[in-house]
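Hi team,

As requested, here is the filled-out complex form for the nicotinamide-adenine-dinucleotide run. I kept the field names the same as last time so the parser does not choke. Let me know if anything looks off before we queue the next batch.

— J.
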Amino acid sequence: MSETDSTPAHVGVLGGGRMGAGIAHAFLLAGSSVTVIERDDTAAAAASDRVLDSVDASIDRGTALEEATSYRARFVTGTDVSSFAACDLVIEAVPEDIALKIDALTRVEKQLTPGAALASNTSSISIDELAAVLEDPERFLGMHFFNPVPASTLVEIVRGATTGPALIDDARGWVRALGKTPIVVADAPGFASSRLGVAIGLEAIRMLEEGVASAEDIDAAMTLGYKHPVGPLRLTDIVGLDVRLGIAEYLAAHLGARFEPPALLRRLVAEGHLGRKSGRGFYEWDA
Ligand SMILES: NC(=O)c1ccc[n+]([C@@H]2O[C@H](COP(=O)([O-])OP(=O)(O)OC[C@H]3O[C@@H](n4cnc5c(N)ncnc54)[C@H](O)[C@@H]3O)[C@@H](O)[C@H]2O)c1
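And here is what came back:
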């Protein structure tokens, strides 16, 4: 982080679920005021609990240095997107559904002041496709945070064809000010992280299918041989086989047959073996 890096004074987050709450937490700890807007009062209350619980946990761990009251004074939740008029940056983190995101982004953009930036935390939807519905696409970019946000140090900044160059520089500084590392990626399917991660995961499944080695030994090849923190098959179990199948199908449609999902992946998903969340994938998982 350089001395000039800082986060925007006021950040808005649309959707305070798993990712939105993590993003709100990150900007609060970095000194911004944060407004989280949810779809209804119940969801707004749940988002508030998620954010404040994780702020309290950071205070307990000693990674948040201010008093709890100081963070609370800079944090509000609500249900009315007109509150985003006060924000310098709004990050959309509603579920991964293009129609939902288009509706959300067009509603949010109408509230923004001319200089405010707008970002999507989408993990797979084309930034250019979303930008096409905006009145001012220069102010729009992808900011792909990773899960769980507090423990993840990478943010993929996705540069759309119409994203303003100065906005990319600003976003790099915001990410550094969060204590994270930015990488800048063009708007290509799977960006950098999903494309590489899924490529290794699919090849590992094909190797298992072909009897090259056991799941444990394939994973050990990468954890011990290449120092990956988790092997590709165990990671597929953690992410969810159905989630990875969906991404592979999307990448195969856009980038070609090299991302074609292996038959073993399709079979396990069809049988309901989705990985950790269902109790079985490439490994058995205890409840
Ligand atoms: N979960 C992950 O591992 C992960 C990682 C990186 C990126 N992402 C992306 O982040 C985005 C959000 O994912 P998530 O896992 O946090 O989902 P989530 O379901 O946990 O949270 C989504 C939130 O959006 C709210 N919401 C729905 N419609 C809304 C609306 N119209 N207005 C305001 N709020 C609304 C929901 O109430 C919910 O709280 C998706 O685009 C996803 O692809 C997820």
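Two things worth flagging: The longest helix spans residues 41-61. DSSP finds eleven helices and eight strands in the chain.

Thanks,
J.
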